[in-house]
Amino acid sequence: MLKVTKFGGSSMADAGQYRKVRDILLADPERRVVVVSAAGKRCSGDHKITDLLYLCHAHAQYGVDCDPVFERITSRYLEIRDALGLALDLETEFTAIKKRLDNNAISQDELVSRGEYFSAKLMAKFLDFKFIDAVEWVKFKMDGSVDQEASYKALRSFSTGKGIVTPGFYGLMPDGHIRTFSRGGSDITGALAAAALDADVYENWTDVSGILMADPRIVENPQPIPEVTYDELRELSYSGAQVLHEGTIFPVREKNIPLNIRNTNAPEDPGTMIREAFSTDADPNRFITGITGKKDFTIISMSKRGMGNEVGVLRKMLSVLERHNISIDYAPNGIDNVSVVMPTASVAPKLYTILGEIQQEVKPDSLEVHDKIAVVAAVGRRMAFRPGISGKVFAALGDAGINIRMINQGPDELNIIFGVDNRDFAEAIRVLYNSFVK
Predict the structure, then answer these.
(1) pLDDT at residue 173 greater than cutoff 70
(2) Which residues 6+ apart lie within 8 Å of 84 measured at CB?
(3) Residue 4: which of 276, 225, 269, 252 has the closest Cα?
(4) I want to staple 33 with a disulfide (CB 3.0 to 4.6 A). Which of 4, 12, 145, 212 is the partner?
């Protein structure tokens, strides 16, 4: 059995966290492949190494002295090395990087990738595992997408009986230049490694004991989700939950590899297991998997008599939005009316132009705009098997005095989505959690 593990920035923040990671790995000999992030924050007032590296590059580009920032970066890694008692020459590499930085001879992507690079070198030395640089196996195509076939083949060639450590977040372009993923991309590297090696489990270690059923800033001490399907995860992520980097899901889902989110600071907690499907439920009495949402949406509602019998009305309305590059999140509709729900930030600068074009092309009987709307989603794969769930949800909100401005439910019945006023957003989530989870 093989477990591929990925440790995030909070797990790599200092020497104490390195020791926790070592204990986790040595506790299970099946954890033989390790992907690491750059050092994260040690406390609330601290800075992530990746942020400091971006700052260094910006300073160098504008001719601002970056020595103090670069010194903070080097001292972090040297402190970790010395605290762990490792005989590893980092100073030579830091000196070479600084020289290139001073001469504007290092790209932003290469510079910021050094956070993961040094984390991996230190961890490999600490564990006595083999260090494999990400450029040796993560291969990009010229369009910036990952060449999965070449990447998988390259990593398999390094697969030996000895454990390996590799940096996350970056890889190599065909022209030999380093390219980074978007922020959080170490999750993608971990998933690619798991898929390449056909791992039995991909463990993503962070600072929480799995995915929580609601935002802890809104609900006090929300319960973790023990099991969630990839479809549910997609719904939660799309609706606002800060779960995983979206690209993480696809490589492991493609290979049907279970993904386990675990807590480095509480390794005994089972965390959240994510799979394509589960034969049985951990708690068959719980039909809501998670509750999430986002604020600041705008709804454009259009009514036109006979619209249900007139071909092309909805297409005309959506064509106007498409011309203005506006993406639609939801589109609840009736026989002679339809509403489109969009992030306010995207539609506000063009709102009156859009309304004018819809009026001209569709000639509706009425056209209304509602803003300051929050969208809340209750997600759960078992909701489809429980009659009356929607009624119970809306009754709970009604009893709390929360006015529902929009209702939408997908055909797969994985979610119930509704709109409320921004001011009712947090209370709506608390009401649902207290009514259906506690």
Answers:
(1) yes
(2) 15, 18, 19, 122, 126
(3) 252
(4) 4
